[in-house]
User: What shape does this take?
Amino acid sequence: MSAAPETAVAGPSTAEDLNAAVEAGQVAFEQARLADPGTRAGWLEAVAAGLEHDAAGLVETAVKETHLAAARLEGELKRTVFQLRLFADEIRLGEHFDATIDHADPEWGMGPRPDLRRYNVPLGVVGVFGASNFPFAFSVMGGDTASALAAGCAVVHKAHDAHRELAARTARAVLDALEGAGAPSGLFSLVTGRQAGEALVDHHLVKAVGFTGSTAGGRALLDRIAARPEPIPFFGELGGINAVFVTPGAWAARRAEIISGYAGSFTLGMGQFCTKPGLLFVPAGHDKGIRGELEAALAGFTSARLLSPRLHAGYTEAVARLRGSGGVDVLVEGDFADEPAPTVLHTTAAAVRSNPDLLRQEMFGPASLVVEYADEAELPALAELLEGQLTTTLQAEADDDVTALAARLADISGRVLWNGWPTGVTVSYAQHHGGPYPATTSNTTSVGTAAIRRFLRPVAFQQFPASRLPEPLQDSNPWRVPQRVDGIWQHPARAVKEGLQ
Assistant: This one.
């Protein structure tokens, strides 16, 4: 693959730069919203091809800025390209429009019904904040940007300061691809710096914001958005603790396997995944044995630098704060070197009942907390102490009665796993990457095809002339999208594929 020339990294964007980007985005949105699904899908596919074309250069730049291994970054870029193509296929189907047609019916059960038609329209210009821990998958052309473009929005992306050179290079590939595909100029743009980020959130033409980052940063943006004269949707992913509950039956049957899986999951990517298992609940009475088994499971671990000095400092502070709390001791002694060794802390169910904050302290790095409980009957009540989670996990046997616990975990989680580990979030149709606050600020997903619908809103048209209706709501259905007509779903594309039309 040939590599594009390096893109110079400019200084922080000014408020004037940001305003120009948003206004250009609004003009592009007005043009792009008229594009049919096939055209918009072609833009996404062009971006995917553009990223592939410069894959070697992008990965080289990412290695230099993030300290992540080339193999990890190659996989993340592959995921990003796959996601763009999956979204292109999804919008070609047209299901995201949710096109619904109720013809006029003088005999309708509650009285005469007018002709009424509803479908989903894109929100407008969307601001997206890049993440530090996924320089491809949750950054310039990550899930928020890809889903907003798929929905028909324009995007102004605020680059993360931890990898500004990579952001600039990725943006250049995206802009070249969109231009080559004939997309409107301004459909995507990149800004940098805190001033531009604040102005992006405040701008009256910005109709939604996507964010992946810390709880403190996300909460600050949420409060700022709420203070706008016109509050807008804020799709913030703020992280989580991702508790894992091990039943006595599973502990007896698969203890070594569980410890090995736990050690591999909480240290994956130096513990800098938002789905890292930060809590492991296990039966009491085994802490001395756990210590030796964890040390053995971590013996082959290779340390690396964290993503940035700021994250390293935050990790050091978080571990020290939790370690210094009453009722907490150390199972595996790590360190805070430039390439830190993993730390495993330990506490008891009695301690967390006395101080539930022990369960709510995220350690963004290779550290986790083991909680010992005395009786399996405690687990639902212990789960009650948890805040909203991106994921929770059950390590259980088929004959374990975990009905109450599973129901509680579903109440507080976006994804509940059975005998697995939460790191690794596939991009697919049924995926849900979200969860109750403080995991996220909405009930939507930031991963998978359902993410497209975050950046849409429904509009109903009553008694409109046929010639004035948007294409998805016309009886002739020129875009051949699924329509629910008088309560019955019709799928033209599927019918053609199956040879029914």
Remarks:
- The radius of gyration is 25 Å.
- The chain has two domains: 15-238+443-455, 243-418.
- The longest strand covers residues 116-122.
- Residues 380 and 405 are 5 Å apart (CA to CA).
